[in-house]
Amino acid sequence: PLNLSDFMSDKKYSATDAYAQSKLSNLMFAFELDRRLQAAGSNAICVACHPGFSSTQLGSTGPKGLFKLLYKIRGCPR
Q1: What is the secondary structure of the chain as a DSSP string?
Q2: pLDDT value of position 42
Q3: Can you give the pLDDT at residue 16?
Q4: Is 16 within 8 Å of 22 (Cβ atoms)?
Q5: Which distant-in-sequence residues (6+ apart) come within 8 Å of 59 by Cβ?
Q6: d(Cα 69, Cα 45) in Å, to the nearest integer?
Q7: Residue 30, Cβ density class (10 Å: 0-12 exposed, 13-18 middle, ≥19 buried)
Q8: What's residue 44's pLDDT?
Q9: 31 contacts 45 by C-beta, under 8 angstroms
Q10: What is the average pLDDT across 40-69?
Q11: Share of the chain above pLDDT 70, in %
Q12: 24 CB contacts (<8 Å, ≥6 apart)?
């Protein structure tokens, strides 16, 4: 569930939790936008998808703990 009491992770920050919160927020926005489009009788639809892993500098500090191990096992690029 969304952590509405600390939506911006001001009280407690975890990179993994912040990422999960942002992805869930994206999905909820897409579902609500699609619902409103359909309710308005629009032919437009809203679709959300995850692009998978992208090798960028966004996570320059890299994964930690179990995620680091999983990435090594799966052969994901750093």
Answers
A1: ---GGGTT-SSS--HHHHHHHHHHHHHHHHHHHHHHHHHTT-S-------------STTTT---HHHHHHHHHHT---
A2: 98
A3: 81
A4: no
A5: 15
A6: 38
A7: middle
A8: 97
A9: no
A10: 76
A11: 69
A12: 2
pLDDT in tens, 24-54: 999 999 999 999 999 999 999 999 987 666 6
72/66 Cα distance (integer angstroms):
10
Q: Are 27 and 11 in contact (CB under 8 A)?
A: no
- The distance of Cα 14 from the centroid of its chain, to the nearest Å, equals 13
Among residues 76, 52, 67, 56, the alpha carbon closest in space to that of 14 is found at 67
